Amino acid sequence: MDTAKKEHQLIVSVSPHIKSEETTSRIMWSVNAALLPATVMGAYFFGPRAVFILVISIIASVLSEYIFQKSLNRKVSVNDGSAFLTGLLLGMNLPPSVPFYIPIIGSFVAVVITKQLFGGLGFNVFNPALIGRAFLLISFPKLMTIWKEPTAAFIQFDAKTTATPLGILKEEGVAKLMEVFGDNISLYTQLFVGHRAGSIGETSSIALLIGAAFLLYRGYISWHIPVSFLGTAALIAWIFGTKGALFTGDPIVHLFSGGMLLGAFFMATDYVTCPSVKKGQILFGIGCGFLTMLIRLKGGYPEGVMFAILIMNCFSPIIDRGFKTKVFGAKKETKESKK
Amino acid sequence: MAQHSTNTINYKELILNGIIKENTIFKLALSLCPAIAVTSGLKNGVLMGVAVLFVQVMVNATISLMRNFIHPKVRLPIFMLVISGWVTVTDLSMAAAVPDVYKQMGLYIQLIVAFASILARAEMFASKNKIAPSMADGIGMGIGFLFALTVISFFRELIGKGSLWGFPIINAKPLLIAILPAGGFLAVGMLMALFNWIDIRFFKKGAHH
Questions:
Q1: Distance between the two ends of chain B, CA-based, in angstroms?
Q2: Same domain flag for A95 and A173
Q3: Which residues in chain A touch residue B175, judged by CB atoms under 8 angstroms apart?
Q4: Helix A101-108 with A128-139: angle, nearest 10 deg
Q5: What is the ipTM metric for this complex?
């Protein structure tokens, strides 16, 4: 058939007829790209070891998805970038000093148990990368809480182990934190740049904000969840942040430490596991912020972002049902109309 | 539910029914609370299974003997009375024989009273059949439960503590989560899938595809 004829063919197809250029794989790879600055900063601060962990995590994640789908004769969907993203996010959430088998186990749990066993992408109840990390934290409590001091040089040093800012805050209070980092300004700068102990990808606030700005600009995430999440957390940190005194806490330390930014912009906003109605997303974010601060201030762990998001994930379907948008023109069912 | 009130009773089938076709945990998904709570160690899992096996057989036998004297209107209270009687016997004997294990799982032994599977077998089988098939049914269901608990606790203790029956096997704690409640759910779910896969693949040839 020549091309001219082909162009004038009448094609009968079912709706929708106008399709957006956005596809799942395009969004997924964009999120991967948005995580690039934070990944680079993590590699810069924690050295080749961090790159090694990230690469192993990604390879294990993609391979588990490939092998699982192949062995069940399902359509292999590793090209859509979601397994890559899960691996990358899991790697970014691990301490840089973990042994190589940790990301492999975590990726398997994340991709196979959390995602594929529930029916694959779009059907998982929980964020896969976070379940992978929760599984690892519970299974290897010691290995998962050894934090390396950032070396800020791409050379392998035997870096000292140290506590994360949140760990210090939890164990020894804000005075000790100031002692370690110098004064207020130096503390804020170091938190902002990312020169602190923590998971590979969570330390550099500025890099995460650049990635988040890209996603917001492209419209892949909306402001609702991050703003309500961070706003609630900041408010609670300000009111209850210091023991014994109200309204004197330091919200900046809480916002820029731990996995708060990574969680609020990249994990809580996961399409599959967050509510899809905007009003519901605000409630979801408030819940995440509240639970995070509850765990940080009152719980046993220094960091609570992971558990907060996972707990709120279970409420997503209920939140969605509660905030269901009204169908245009539909009348509210009253007692009289029932009669 | 097949009734074996005729003279031709296939005892082998009766016993296998409880172990494979109607396995309490892997097939009916009943009594999952103790299956998760007590299976963090092989010893606890096996002893719990044995306790349930004993109660199931004795309850089935007793109900079967009494089946012609129980008025249908009061049958459930009578069943409960018989079950709690045998559970008390088990409870007291275990407290005397294995006090250290009893300390950990005494509560769950007493909870056997509320097992759906035991009441269900009394209602659906023992109250309609003679004593021999009723006992065979109890043995099958009990062994099925014992088997499930043994397998679950075997993997959980081996993976979570690196030991079996309290004796160290591997000099490490591979996955701590296995002995925690979350790991219990994971273990039950995965073994249930495996059990069903084996059942479909090897015992029901031609039934699928």
A1: 26
A2: no
A3: 105, 139
A4: 130
A5: 0.77
Considering A110, A144, A178, which residue would you say is the last residue of a domain? A144
State how far residue B190 is from chain A, nearest Cα, in angstroms: 10
CA A131 – CA B147 distance, rounded (Å): 30
Size of interface A-B (CB pairs under 8 A): 12
pTM, rounded to two decimals:
0.84
Q: For residue B177, list chain A residues with Cβ-Cβ distance below 8 A.
A: 135, 138-139
A315 exposure class (CB count in 10 Å sphere: 0-12, 13-18, 19+): middle
Given an 8 Å threshold on Cβ–Cβ distance, is A141 in contact with B186? no
How many other C-beta atoms are found inside a 10 Å radius of the C-beta of residue A34?
23
With CA atoms as reference, the chain B residue closest to A117 would be B190
Choose the most confident range, by mean pLDDT, from A125-139, A182-196, B7-21, B156-170: A125-139
* pLDDT tens, residue by residue, B59-93: 999 999 998 888 888 988 999 999 999 999 999 99
- Mean pLDDT (whole number) for B93-117: 86
Q: Is A83 in the same domain as A188? A: no
Please check whether residues A130 and A250 belong to one and the same domain. no
d(CA B21, CA A93): 44
Q: What pLDDT is attached to residue B208?
A: 47
For residue A270, what are the domain limits? 165-320
Tokens 């009273």 sit on residue: B113
The number of angstroms, rounded, from the C-alpha of A245 to the middle of its chain's C-alpha atoms is 32
**Span A203-217, mean pLDDT?**
93
